[in-house]
Design brief:
By secondary structure, this protein is mainly beta. It contains 1 helix and 14 strands; from the N terminus they run αββββββββββββββ.
């Protein structure tokens, strides 16, 4: 009897040790819900329609991705010229806090940096200032199903307006996960995504 009890005790201990040493496999952490590509080589082709001008195409591409602070990615976007050469236009910080233009690299006017294109985590109705020194506001209007030449996207609509002039025409942009801006409209102008190619090289 004593031998049987001893054997059962040893088996119980061995079983407990085996269960304690076993580490269950864990699923990989889900990828962040970036609203801008963070892979080098990603490419957008946009169709520009401007009132009074001939329709044009513009090609932009991601030419560099760097690691920023707190897990952010610093993405350099460049315009692709007709001869295939690329010209840096802006640097964008992408993280779970949103999409921020942090540098204008074109040497031309058009906007001041930094400014927040899309604030995350998002919720419909939230608003934020474009810059701290002016009254330009951006408002999250929710997710809309939008059709552009590149296809259909579930995209976040962001309206840009001036607080001092609430009746002035607003600019509107739509952002899709992993793609970035798929459409941009304002008075007399419509920019729509014609095609998008994800990058092949993942940022480290």
């Amino acid at each position: 009897m004593n031998r049987l009890l001893t054997l059962l005790t040893l088996l119980a201990l061995l079983g407990t040790r085996t269960r304690a040493d076993e580490v269950p496999a864990q699923d990989p952490a889900p990828a962040p819900a970036y609203y801008y590509p963070v892979q080098k080589g990603a490419r957008w082709v946009y169709l520009w329609k401007v009132q009074g001008r001939k329709d044009e195409e513009r090609i932009d591409t991601v030419t560099a991705v760097e690691s920023g602070t707190s897990g952010a990615k610093l993405v350099t976007a460049s315009m692709v010229a007709a001869d295939g050469r690329t010209y840096p236009t802006e640097k964008v910080e992408v993280s779970d806090k949103g999409v921020f233009n942090v540098a204008n690299l074109s040497g031309l006017g058009g906007y001041f940096s930094p400014w927040c294109q899309l604030k995350l985590p998002r919720h419909t109705g939230q608003s934020w200032k474009m810059h701290q020194w002016d009254d330009t506001m951006l408002v999250d209007r929710g997710v809309e199903r939008i059709q552009v030449p590149a296809g259909e996207f579930d995209a976040v609509r962001v309206d840009q307006m001036l607080q001092k002039y609430p009746t002035a025409p607003a600019q509107t942009r739509w952002y899709a996960r992993g793609v970035g801006k798929v459409k941009h409209t304002c008075a007399g102008m419509d920019i729509s995504l014609k095609s998008f190619t994800p990058g092949e090289e993942r940022a480290r």
